[in-house]
Amino acid sequence: MTLTSFGPANRIKRSAETHPLTWRLRDDGEAVWLDEYQAKNGYAAARKAFADMAQDDIVQTVKDAGLKGRGGAGFPTGVKWGLMPKDESINIRYLLCNADEMEPNTWKDRMLMEQLPHLLIEGMLISARALKTYRGYIFLRGEYTTAAKHLNRAVEEAKAAGLLGKNILGSGFDFELFVHTGAGRYICGEETALINSLEGRRANPRSKPPFPAAVGVWGKPTCVNNVETLCNVPAIIADGVDWYKSLAREGSEDMGTKLMGFSGKVKNPGLWELPFGVTGRELFEDYAGGMRDGFKLKAWQPGGAGTGFLLPEHLDAQMYAGGIAKVGTRMGTGLAMAVDDSVNMVSLLRNMEQFFARESCGFCTPCRDGLPWSVKLLMAIEKGEGQPGDIETLLGLVGFLGPGKTFCAHAPGAVEPLGSAIKYFRPEFEAGIAPISAAVPPLARPIVVGA
């Protein structure tokens, strides 16, 4: 994994003024521990929040800054915080950090936790102060063993320095923080499935309402935020709303910076902190260096496996939620994948849908049965054994598993790349349809009503 500088030719040095998330990173990639973090102005924002700001003022500042969730959904963070109950008699509340980063082609939170664990802890400490939560959990992807080790060490350092535990900074405020490793399920990225798993239950999403802010962990008010989201909080508190908004490019409706990346057969795959509003072309050409010699860009996904495919002509779209929506898909996690011209789209989609089908919690019928059905059809088409009507059946499944049709957002995210792949590369799917003479009689094939 690489993390290059803000400038296309590595000429511009990362600084606190332009890189609130990454300016403290070491050049050798080692973790920044407490002494070094504090020497780089670490926990100054927390001290400001505790000494100079009322709890409601912290919430309002985050809301005014326009910070949105960085896990993929993009919900306004300050609005989410505002949903927590105001009743002072409710003295048990929880703050959960969603660090279950299992979206294929996404590794941004891993970098923050491994190399800047105290930035996450400071973000959670300020957030806990604002939300009046007395206990926090970092729900961590089980495979992130290095992140777990670094976070646990950082938590112990913070405790020893009086930055976690009882009477933090002499304020009378108590906050305990625990690292909880998950068992390796993609569905735990959904906040209520995460809560169920944390409680020791099966990781199924819960019905909403009630929302976690009302009934969350063990029935108590709970706020769930992504790693990168929480890591933005210290800079907003330290440097203010106007500065934070000024980081984004003109035209972007999202504020601040975003960890963005590119993988695939590009010359310089990596991860960079960039302002919202940069174009996909800048990300692809200036940072990722374009395709390796001998390969041509065929398609790309802007933000993880659950986002729709785009074509090379879409690279001029601005990288923020509304900018990517204009070309027909979602910003997602902001880590893009390049698909080169040697890749067969049917095989790629079969691989993706197998992953999503395996990771379904099985709670609702469309997801439990629809995703495996799509895999069976794609496997047949991949072998050249597809039957007339199979493509229409796949498109029917895309509709039946779309937004609002399932219990959570797992299935809609799973079929979004499938629908876009058929839209842009239908001839590759048609090539896998067997001749009419080899077709199975229609009544022997499953039929999707309304396809």
From TrEMBL:
<dbReference type="GO" id="GO:0046872">
    <property type="term" value="F:metal ion binding"/>
</dbReference>
<comment type="subunit">
    <text>Composed of 13 different subunits. Subunits NuoCD, E, F, and G constitute the peripheral sector of the complex.</text>
</comment>
<keyword id="KW-0408">Iron</keyword>
<dbReference type="GO" id="GO:0051539">
    <property type="term" value="F:4 iron, 4 sulfur cluster binding"/>
</dbReference>
<keyword id="KW-0479">Metal-binding</keyword>
<comment type="similarity">
    <text>Belongs to the complex I 51 kDa subunit family.</text>
</comment>
<dbReference type="InterPro" id="IPR001949">
    <property type="entry name" value="NADH-UbQ_OxRdtase_51kDa_CS"/>
</dbReference>
<keyword id="KW-1278">Translocase</keyword>
<dbReference type="GO" id="GO:0048038">
    <property type="term" value="F:quinone binding"/>
</dbReference>
<keyword id="KW-0411">Iron-sulfur</keyword>
<dbReference type="Pfam" id="PF10589">
    <property type="entry name" value="NADH_4Fe-4S"/>
</dbReference>
<dbReference type="InterPro" id="IPR011538">
    <property type="entry name" value="Nuo51_FMN-bd"/>
</dbReference>
<dbReference type="GO" id="GO:0010181">
    <property type="term" value="F:FMN binding"/>
</dbReference>
<keyword id="KW-0874">Quinone</keyword>
<dbReference type="GO" id="GO:0008137">
    <property type="term" value="F:NADH dehydrogenase (ubiquinone) activity"/>
</dbReference>
<dbReference type="InterPro" id="IPR037225">
    <property type="entry name" value="Nuo51_FMN-bd_sf"/>
</dbReference>
<dbReference type="GO" id="GO:0051287">
    <property type="term" value="F:NAD binding"/>
</dbReference>
<dbReference type="InterPro" id="IPR011537">
    <property type="entry name" value="NADH-UbQ_OxRdtase_suF"/>
</dbReference>
<keyword id="KW-0560">Oxidoreductase</keyword>
<dbReference type="InterPro" id="IPR019575">
    <property type="entry name" value="Nuop51_4Fe4S-bd"/>
</dbReference>
<comment type="function">
    <text>NDH-1 shuttles electrons from NADH, via FMN and iron-sulfur (Fe-S) centers, to quinones in the respiratory chain.</text>
</comment>
<keyword id="KW-0520">NAD</keyword>
<feature type="domain" description="NADH-ubiquinone oxidoreductase 51kDa subunit iron-sulphur binding">
    <location>
        <begin position="346"/>
        <end position="391"/>
    </location>
</feature>
<protein>
    <recommendedName>
        <fullName>NADH-quinone oxidoreductase subunit F</fullName>
        <ecNumber>7.1.1.-</ecNumber>
    </recommendedName>
</protein>
<keyword id="KW-0004">4Fe-4S</keyword>
<dbReference type="InterPro" id="IPR037207">
    <property type="entry name" value="Nuop51_4Fe4S-bd_sf"/>
</dbReference>
<keyword id="KW-0285">Flavoprotein</keyword>
<dbReference type="GO" id="GO:0016491">
    <property type="term" value="F:oxidoreductase activity"/>
</dbReference>
<keyword id="KW-0288">FMN</keyword>
<dbReference type="Pfam" id="PF01512">
    <property type="entry name" value="Complex1_51K"/>
</dbReference>
